[in-house]
Structure formats: C-alpha cells, structure tokens
Amino acid sequence: MKILFDFLPLALFFVTFKLAEGRKAAAALFATEHFGFMVSGGQVGPEEAPVLLATLVVVAATLAQVLYLKLRGKKVDLMLWISLALVVVLGGLTVWFHNETFIKWKPTGLYWVMALTFWGSQAFFGKSLIKAALGKEMPLPEEVWRRLNWAWVGFFAFMGLVNILVAYNFSTSTWASFKAFGTVGMMIVFVLGQGFYLARHLPDEEPAAEEPKT
After folding, report:
1. Quick one: residue 180, left, alpha or beta (phi over 0 = left, psi -120 to 50 = alpha)?
2. Which residue from 31, 58, 136, 145 could staple onto 44, CB 3.0 to 4.6 Å apart?
3. Which tens digits make up the pLDDT trace of 77-136?
4. Rounded distance, CA 18 to CA 186, Å?
C-alpha cells in the first residue's frame, strides 16, 4: 500500500494531463474560469491548459499526502518534504508564468537533492542512509552499506540527468508518459538489482539445532 501512496501524485498528474490533452479547448476554458486568478494575465490557452491543470493536481495531492501523515501522527519522509517544497515552488512558477519548464525541472531537482543528501551523509558524516533505513533488518558489513549508499547517489544523479534530456528533447506529452512509466520502471529495475546485491552478502542462516535423541 505504501508504494501506491508514494506514487499517487505522479499517477494523478499523468491522468489529469492526458484527460486535459484530449480536450484542450474545454480544459483551457475550465482552467481560466476556475484558476485564472492564479495565472499571469488571467487567461489559460489550450496548449498550456493540460500541464497547468496537472500541476495544480500534483501540488494538491502532495499537500494532501503530508497533511494525511501528520494528522495520523506518522513520520513524513525526507523525500516527501523535498518533493513538497519543489512542487509548490516550481509548480507555482509554472502556473503563474504559463511555463511548463519549471515543473519539468521538479523531478530533476528532487533526484539531485537526494543525491547530494546521500553523498553528504557519507562524505561528511560517514553515515549510510541506506544502513539507517535497513540496517536493523539486515546485518551487513560496513563496506556493503557504503557501496549501496554510493550506488543510490549515482542512481539519483543519473535519473535527474535523464529527466532533463527527455524534457528538452521530446514533447511535453512524451515527457509526461516517461515521468509516469519510464522513471518508475527504472526505479524498479534498480531496486531489484540492489536486492540481488544484498542477497549475495546476507549471512547464511544458522541450521536449526538437532533435538537430543532419547
């Protein structure tokens, strides 16, 4: 259930964008009537309406996630706090300036901030954030945790770069599809690879002691 909760804003962004993209004129009219006060000039055009509406939805969904967790007395993960800050700032700029470039930078901003966080924790404090999250369940050598931490640094840096390459070299529609499916697929492949790596270094379970013969 947690993975569905984490990816809910992304799913809502994609669905909203695709629905509005198929009805651009109606989407522009709806956006102008209901959200024109949030847009510079007060008018939303057909070409910009899909990404504007999708941006508003993802901002609302991310805010709702944080509020839900806080009201339930649960911990809000660092990644969600960073995502909220970026989506509010960059999403707000996208809406006000009618410019989809800002929201397209949001995934890259999130990935690169996370890469810096993982790098800084290891480089300056000698602490592996992966170990902090999984160390109690998996007794592994320090070198293994260190390698995993650097692997996440590289992965987040790579993901941020790929997002920018897609955003600037393909249409917004293609970018939205990549954001919804491509990044999720890359994340799954990386996590599976990490799982195989962890399995190689987990200590063997001790055989159960034989019961004494009577």
Report:
1. alpha
2. 31
3. 888 999 999 999 999 999 999 899 999 999 999 999 999 999 998 888 878 787 777 766
4. 22
d(CA 11, CA 191) in angstroms, rounded, equals 20
What's the length of the chain?
214
The candidate with the shortest Cα–Cα distance to 12, out of 47, 48, 73, 64, is 64
pTM of the model: 0.86
Residue that has been written with the tokens 């650097």 in this structure: 150
Helices (H), 74-182: 78-97, 101-104, 106-125, 129-134, 142-169, 172-177
The position carrying tokens 């805010």 is 63
User: Cα–Cα distances in Å, from 67 out to 27, 30, 79, 86, 161?
Assistant: 28, 27, 15, 16, 31
* Residue segments in the chain with a per-residue pLDDT below the cut of 50: 206-209, 214
pLDDT (0 to 100) of residue 143? 83
Per-state percent for the chain, helix, strand, coil, to nearest 5:
75, 0, 25
